[in-house]
Amino acid sequence: MTEYDAIVIGAGQAGPGVAAALAGDGQRTLLVEMEQVGGTCLNHGCRPTKALRASAVIAHQARRASEYGVHTGEVTVDFPAAIQRVHTMIDGMRQGLRDWLDGVDGLDLVSGTATLVGDPAGRAHQVTVGGQTHSTGKVYLDVGGRAAVPGIDGLDAVDHLTEVELLQLTELPRHLVVVGGGYIGLEFGQMFRRFGAEVTILAGSGIAGREDPDVVDALTEVLTGEGVSIRNTRPQRVSRTDDGLRVELSDGSEPVVGSHLLVATGRHSNLDLLGADHGLETDERGFVTIGPRFETSLPGVWALGDVNGHGAFTHTAYQDSQILLSPPRTVTDRVTTYAMFTDPPLGRVGMGLTEARASGRRVLKAEVPMSSVSRAQLEGETAGLMRVLVDGDTEEILGATILGLQADDVVQIIGLAIQAGIGYPTVRDALPIHPTVAEFLPSILGSLTPLD
Ligand SMILES: Cc1cc2nc3c(=O)[nH]c(=O)nc-3n(C[C@H](O)[C@H](O)[C@H](O)COP(=O)(O)OP(=O)(O)OC[C@H]3O[C@@H](n4cnc5c(N)ncnc54)[C@H](O)[C@@H]3O)c2cc1C
Ligand SMILES: NC(=O)c1ccc[n+]([C@@H]2O[C@H](COP(=O)([O-])OP(=O)(O)OC[C@H]3O[C@@H](n4cnc5c(N)ncnc54)[C@H](O)[C@@H]3O)[C@@H](O)[C@H]2O)c1
């Protein structure tokens, strides 16, 4: 049995930084990765999807070019070339990460699926990889998650895709049927429609389920306006046809006949892959229960990233590693800002309307449709809205919802203000640059109205 000072399981968004820091600190460290370094984000999540999105945005803009007095001729999409561009870029990034990890002194990187037998006393946790068992007093988990595939009658008998297989396609699907109208379903659905595929999203009880109804309406208008079909129903039964598949629906409406089926109905933690004897306490959703500095129920085991349920994004997982490495910071007071990368994107932080109404506070609202934002008018990108909610008594900023041009960046101004504890008058009185989307944050905060 080999002894390590520390073992990091999972080379996703938090693991590599933690492993390198521990090794740099003179601790003999093992980093275990069962697939490829870079985890979900680099290999089949944020990075490849946003690289592919770039092609979809260009195709869309090229089709609209004549609106701007630019003539391109017929626009066609070479999907194999677009996906090859993604793979080339991702391969380079992965190699860069791999090379960096290989160069860290005192760090052993091994390939394989780790199982963990936790020591309740916290002295000798046992990690087994490829038949070899290692012992350590410190384990850092960064094991993330994978697509949760729902039990749909007939699904096992048809070829269905998660984001992993979808990104390996080399031909454009004729008709992509997407189960789930969340982040993955909407981002991919819009992209593939822009590439020229027919797209049907089976959105269950509705797209973007956690967002306010007017945001859902605006997003629906954008997507259906581009020809994406959205149906608020669930698949009941799936079967093969001669050239694809047929999906019968739970509301008994007309079945969908498509060529490919993407399942995007949420994530499942990878904790099960650690075996049955890890001994970690989990919550009702299957995430590892943690304290303010990622400490688990087992002394000497910490859980970072998606697996701890305190975030479901790359930036939250990466920030976990930064917090861990800079005590006494804690994860408790994190303000989570996030974006859905539809085009236009949706930027979010804090409360939406529903939560604000339920908060019992005297909430004031600042709002403007993107069609009134001069930069959006100038760029011909007027879909969406900007909304900021504040507490009328304490002057705290409670949240922001921005759907529209550059919303993924602009919303971070509000995220930062909330994190810094800046009241809304300071943002209202700041000097903005004209003409930018962000200039409307100060101006709308000058005309607050009570939330109805
Ligand atoms: C299609 C898609 C698009 C996304 N887009 C975005 C986006 O635009 N922005 C954003 O912020 N987030 C996005 N996300 C979410 C983001 O990818 C995750 O939140 C992030 O990767 C979580 O990081 P992590 O380190 O917790 O886990 P992961 O990145 O999943 O890394 C976990 C690693 O652990 C390894 N592992 C697991 N179990 C074991 C074991 N027993 N032994 C050895 N290794 C193991 C896995 O192979 C993996 O490499 C997207 C996700 C998907 C699926
Ligand atoms: N831009 C980003 O940051 C980004 C992009 C992609 C993914 N992600 C991360 O990945 C996670 C997973 O994304 P996702 O889209 O799979 O999950 P999600 O939770 O965002 O959405 C899944 C949707 O599927 C619905 N659903 C569940 N079962 C269904 C069924 N049988 N039929 C129809 N609909 C069903 C759910 O009600 C939900 O609305 C996200 O929560 C997010 O954390 C982030």
From TrEMBL:
Gene3D superfamilies xrefs: 3.30.390.30, FAD/NAD(P)-binding domain (3.50.50.60)
Domain FAD/NAD(P)-binding: 4-319
InterPro entries per UniProt: FAD/NAD-bd_sf, FAD/NAD-binding_dom, FAD/NAD-linked_Rdtase_dimer_sf, Pyr_nuc-diS_OxRdtase, Pyr_nucl-diS_OxRdtase_dimer
Keywords (A to Z) from UniProt: FAD, Flavoprotein
Source taxon at top rank: Bacteria
Cofactor: FAD
Segments traversing the membrane: none
Record domain Pyridine nucleotide-disulphide oxidoreductase dimerisation: where: 338-440
Protein family: Belongs to the class-I pyridine nucleotide-disulfide oxidoreductase family.
The protein's name: FAD-containing oxidoreductase
Organism: Microlunatus aurantiacus
